[in-house]
Amino acid sequence: MATTPIWTRPISVDLLAGIHHDTAVDRLGIEFLAVGDDFIRARVPVDGRTRQPYGLLHGGVSVVLAETLGSCGAAYSCPPGHRAVGLDINANHLRGATEGWVTGTTRPVHIGRTTQVWQIDLVDDAGRPTCVSRITMAILAPRG
C-alpha cells in the first residue's frame, strides 16, 4: 500500500548526511541509509568509537542514533518556517551488540500542530531488536 509522503520540504540521504558534517553524528560514524514516504533509516558502527568498556554498543550511542532519527523526522515534517526541538526521549535497551552495525528506523506515531512523537526501532545485523525508543518533539512557530 502506497503512502503519501509526510515531508514538508526536500529530504534525502545526501541532505541528511550534509547537515551532520562535523557533528557528533559524523564523529560516531552514523550513516544515513534511506528515506521513505514516512520513515528515515540510519546505522551506527559498533567499534572503538561507540563501545563501552564491556565491549557492547554504548547505550548512549543508541540514544544518539534514536534522537538523530526522530529529530530529523520532526524537522522535515513540520510546517515550513517552524522548528522542532526535543522535549523527551526514552530508550529501552533490549539486547547488546558487540560488532557490526546497529540500524535504526523512525516513523511518526503522532504529527500534531505543536508536538510530534516518533518511534525509533534499532536492530542488529541479524535483525534482532537492540533498543526501542520514543521521542517527543515540540514544534515551535516562527519567531516574529
UniProtKB/TrEMBL annotation:
GO cellular component, one term: cytosol
UniProt GO molecular function: 1,4-dihydroxy-2-naphthoyl-CoA thioesterase activity
Record's keyword annotation contains Hydrolase: yes
Taxonomic source organism: Ramlibacter pinisoli
CDD domains, alphabetized: PaaI_thioesterase (cd03443)
One Pfam family cited in the UniProt record for this chain: 4HBT
The keyword Ligase belongs to this UniProt entry's keyword annotation: no
Family of this protein: Belongs to the thioesterase PaaI family.
Residue span(s) of domain Thioesterase: 54-129
Keyword annotations from UniProtKB, A to Z: Hydrolase
Name assigned to this protein: Hotdog fold thioesterase
